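User: Show me a protein chain along with its predicted structure.
Assistant: Here is one chain, sequence first, then structure tokens.
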Amino acid sequence: MSQHSSRRDTVPLTPYAFLAPALIITGLVVLVPALRTFWMSLQDLILYRPDAARFIGLGNVIRAFGDEVFWISLRQSLLWIVLSVGLQFLLGFATALLLNQSFWWRSAARALIVIPWALPSVIIGLMWTWMYDFNLGVLNDMLMRLGLIARPVAWLADPDLAFYCVVLTLVWQGFPFFAVTILAGLQSIPADQLEAAEIDGATRWQRLRHVTIPGLADIIMTALLLRIIWVANSLDVILLMTGGGPGYATHTLPLYAFQKAYSAMEYGYGAALAVILTALLMVVVMGYVRRSSRGIAT
């Protein structure tokens, strides 16, 4: 009896042994830099005079709240996320529904749709910058040939247009992620449910609304969360295409943090901006976790 209870009380170490390497690597690659960034955000740290660094607590955060460029960047970051992710989702969802149909070149279409997602951001940024070019851009050439514009448009130099041009670029790059993810989810919906709904007289829209979308709800929420985090942190396409200009027209919070840290050499303030962005994203993640927990509980 005592031997039996002692075996039962023994904690198995094998799972922890297998997890230990992954946890150690995650700690070194993610946790340590994150803690270092948080510590830097509490200091007045400028790269070219590191000896003069001093602890200022929340001084950088208070400075950010009084920084007009911070509020411009934050507002445009929210618009950047809503427009980019929203349009990517709508286009990706429509593409997934189309690729779920039967047509003779469906396999080739499913392979080709991944190309924008597979291309490096550097290539995408350079390619779309050329397309928007005032003198040589294919977009101006095409619109002028169609008679839609009388003269070339400076797409990336116009403060009213540059932001939406970069959003369009990111939509083109990111919609295959939703298309492939949702397409995989469509394959998991039982065909008999759709057939039963059709037999009961449900229209195509009713089948989509009451069968397909509820069946994809968890996949859609997960894909949206991942894409929101990715887009909120992205700055490569903006940096390549406009550098945040003209003026502050395409400034976002991660780009502003990057510029403060690596152009102005204000590591402390740049780290504080990054910490603020992380805190805002954690709110989104916690909302998703709470929703998932309720789903598991029910």
